Amino acid sequence: MPTKTHVKKVQLELTSNMNQERGSRKGHQEGWQWRGNARALAKKNRAKRKHFGIDDDNEFETKTQKEFVISREKTGSEVGIVASANAGRFHVFFKGKYIDCALDSELPFVLGHRIVVGDYVTVKQTSGGLVIDHLVERKTALSRLRRDSTHWGDISARNEQIIVANIDTAVIVAAIMNPPFHPKFIDRYLVLVQHGGIKPIICLNKCDLLNERSEILAYYQKLGIQVIRTSAEKSIGIEELKQAIRGQSAVLVGHSGVGKSSLINRITPVADLRVGTTTKKTGKGRHTTTSSELLIWEANSYIIDTPGIRSLGMWDIARENLQLYFDDIDRLAVECTFADCLHDNTAPELCGVIRAMQQGSLPLQRYESYIKILREL
Description:
The protein is of the alpha/beta class. It folds into three domains: 63-137, CATH 2.40.50.140; 162-305, P-loop containing nucleotide triphosphate hydrolases (Rossmann fold, 3-Layer(aba) Sandwich); 319-376, Ribonucleotide Reductase Protein R1, domain 1 (Orthogonal Bundle). It is 33% helix and 22% strand. It has helices at residues 4-52, 63-68, 153-156, 183-195, 214-222, 238-245, 260-267, 327-332, 352-359, 364-376; strands at 69-70, 79-86, 89-94, 97-103, 120-126, 129-136, 141-145, 160-165, 169-175, 199-205, 226-229, 249-253, 293-298, 301-305. It has a six-stranded mixed sheet, with helices on both faces. Helix 4 crosses helix 10. The longest helix is centred in the first third of the chain and has 49 residues, at 4-52. It starts with a helix and ends with a helix. Residues 56-61, 148-158 and 276-287 have low confidence and may be disordered.
């Protein structure tokens, strides 16, 4: 007759075996689930590739896609400017009026996601109406690094997000307060704008409020950047701003709540754009503009409102080339002992930039802007 000790030992062994079997079954189920997810993902990607017309060699640039972009010299007369883009539908300024267009049905659907506000496109008549059949080669583009995942996943996202195209002037709008004034954000925009081949203007809005910020603004003017002080609420500086962007394609960029839409309403009252406010808790602006939109306010004068952007990642800028977008730092770099100096961790006696910063001829916040961007590259 088995003893109590023996029974207990057998029970423990049975329990152990059951746990092992359960663990094995669980591991098998988890493995099956992972394999099932992988198969589902692969199936989804195959379907996506088939829908977008992407070939079996994983090449995004198919022959059709390459031919979609044509040079500016071959456009002819059937050219319009994209005023807004939303889910494959486009509002195009064409022959003096705004029209609704879709992408030519003979083209892969994904090509529609390469078109942004400000793009020049060729338009043709089909039995179904007017459609876009070509994208004209861009002369300039304002873009940033895409950090967020999108519905199109790894097929259409190429790490660069183009905000607007074919811009002559970018008006970097900042507010003296509400939301708080951030020179480092201005510096970041100055890099992106210059990298895109676009002329920058700094617009200090809400200048009727306190805290003039004249010292840093005088420094930007010393760098050769035009600074315009405005108040959309009291119509201060509006004529000066209009004169600076007349006869051009201009975009207003900056944080939410700085007054971009209010300024556009002053420049062209027919725009009637919604105006936002800042939150009391954070002092940051609320998004009122949800997508970019191009408006014509005078003959050959276009203005684009953009959503407020809080994250501006640098796109396609090498670390050793960053100082080229900081004219003041680039001029001081000739005083560095080593030609490849990045001015980030060098003794002052070897680095002219750090030496100038310590002596006060280079503002600390400009140097900090440079270093912050450098560490992201």
